[in-house]
């Protein structure tokens, strides 16, 4: 099982394949990942590898893995407009602006937060630990 697979560099993916093949004692060029079943989970719209090429550039990925997209967002399934906004935002490219409606919607959320107009058990996301500490006071 590999979580956050989108963070794995193509070179590391190849090293995982080579090491599993070695560990399993398989000496065949057709044995992928040492014939060990791999389930890889991740959101390729989130983060890419920091230093090198993405797993997409590896033939081990493109030739041997089936892509399955999960279409129901369980956390936001009761609020489809919010869920759709989150999907639009996560698919934005660098230097691409979000649409005006989404920006206004997020600004309203931010204003509610600043004025403490939210349910006490609401989920809060912060970019910095100092913001978390301030919120938790």
TrEMBL record:
InterPro entries: DNA_helicase_pif1-like_DEAD, P-loop_NTPase, PIF1_helicase. One of its GO terms (biological process) is telomere maintenance. Keywords: ATP-binding, DNA damage, DNA recombination, DNA repair, Helicase, Hydrolase, Nucleotide-binding. Gene3D superfamilies: P-loop containing nucleotide triphosphate hydrolases (3.40.50.300). It catalyses: ATP + H2O = ADP + phosphate + H(+). It comes from the Eukaryota. GO terms for molecular function: 5'-3' DNA helicase activity; ATP binding; hydrolase activity. Residues 2-91 form the DNA helicase Pif1-like DEAD-box helicase domain. Signal peptide: none annotated. Its cofactor is Mg(2+). Its EC number is 5.6.2.3. PANTHER family: ATP-DEPENDENT DNA HELICASE. Belongs to the helicase family. This is ATP-dependent DNA helicase. The lineage of its organism: Eukaryota, Metazoa, Spiralia, Gnathifera, Rotifera.
């Amino acid at each position: 099982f590999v979580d956050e697979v989108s963070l794995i560099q193509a070179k590391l993916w190849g090293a995982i394949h080579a090491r599993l093949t070695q560990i399993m004692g398989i000496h065949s060029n057709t044995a992928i990942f040492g014939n060990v079943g791999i389930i890889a989970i991740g959101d390729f719209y989130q983060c890419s590898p920091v230093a090198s090429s993405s797993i997409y550039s590896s033939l081990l990925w493109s030739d041997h893995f089936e892509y399955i997209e999960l279409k129901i967002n369980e956390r936001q399934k009761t609020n489809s407009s919010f869920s759709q906004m989150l999907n639009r935002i996560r698919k934005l490219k660098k230097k691409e602006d979000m649409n005006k409606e989404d920006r206004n919607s997020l600004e309203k959320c931010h204003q509610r937060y600043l004025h403490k107009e939210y349910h006490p058990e609401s989920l809060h996301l912060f970019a910095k630990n100092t913001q978390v500490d301030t919120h938790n006071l």
